[in-house]
Design goal:
The complex is a heterodimer of chains A (about 300) and B (about 45).
Chain A: E1 2-5, H1 16-22, H2 25-41, H3 48-72, H4 74-79, H5 95-116, H6 119-140, H7 147-156, H8 158-167, H9 172-195, H10 197-203, H11 208-212, H12 214-233, H13 243-265, H14 275-300
Helix pairs in contact in A: 2-3, 2-8, 2-14, 3-5, 3-6, 3-8, 5-6, 6-7, 6-8, 7-9, 8-9, 9-12, 9-14, 12-13, 13-14
Chain B: E1 3-6, H1 10-45
Amino acid sequence: MASVTASADMALPADWQDFLALTKPRVMSLVVFTGLCGLLAAPQAIHPVLGFAAILCIALGAGAAAALNMWYEADLDALMKRTASRPLPAGRMDRQSALHFGVGLGVFSVLLMGLATNWLAAAVLAVSILFYVLVYTVWLKRRTPQNIVIGGAAGAFPPVIGWAAATGDVTLLPLLLFSLIFLWTPPHFWALSLFVRSDYAAAGVPMLPVVSGAKVTRQQIALYTLPMAAAAVAPWPLGLAGPFYGVSAALLSLVFLVLALRVLANRATEPQDMKPEKRLFAFSILYLFAVFGALVLDRWMPL
Amino acid sequence: MDAAVTDPHEDERTRRQKSRALVMALLLGAFVVLVYAITIVRIDQQ
């Protein structure tokens, strides 16, 4: 009996861990946390089972958006060191699988949200997925240095969705939380893009440091920090949160501003000399966790 | 011609298919439990 060896390029099915990697689990943690805080800060209690389902849907929706982002950007990801090992550019998965997975997960998350909580929360979840995929990924990212300014809105939806899931409406506080994440996104991403500038330049992504240089980017980081701090503190004077939240948000925003001013003072052009930028990027993640955590503590354990 | 095709990735292919099937089964089980729990809570709330 003759034996014929199959060609080595016979495609293997993707591993389940590659599908998990498509959802960007690390980014998802911040999305889930802010969504949970929106849900817990709402004045109306939600049944734990429905609350769990709502947070699960926010996580699945974020995962779907991330998968569709990776599906669309596989060519870009292959050009950047930071993203070259993702399942699509590394050749561990075919693009069609990623597309089907992303669309399926997105539709599933929206339907489950509508059935478990209410259709307003489901609609906002659908808008957030479509905004990230169509407005940020397809339209803005490769066209303008304002990509993350406008695209940042996509990541700002989770507290609104969490609030809407609990209450069935959207009021001023969730809109302020939306504004906070919206205004936090540019300094957060521009700090990162300063020390991975060469990656973005190699891939032809018009991030601000690539298009306008490090000096302008540092100025913009400092400028955006001011309205971001105002949005963070605003719930206190408006009577939507108590003094614990107000003082916490003010102190954390002050530290953010000091770090942003250190970035502004830095003149380095090489990544290894960009410690202030790396410090601001790391702190910006902690900042968002801490401000939202303070809001929940303030709501549940008022002074 | 009586030829048998040998895939050098056969073991890896089988392993991935099995692990994907197992994960899918666990997820479907979790989904059934979740939908059941949601239904009970929604009925209680009416």
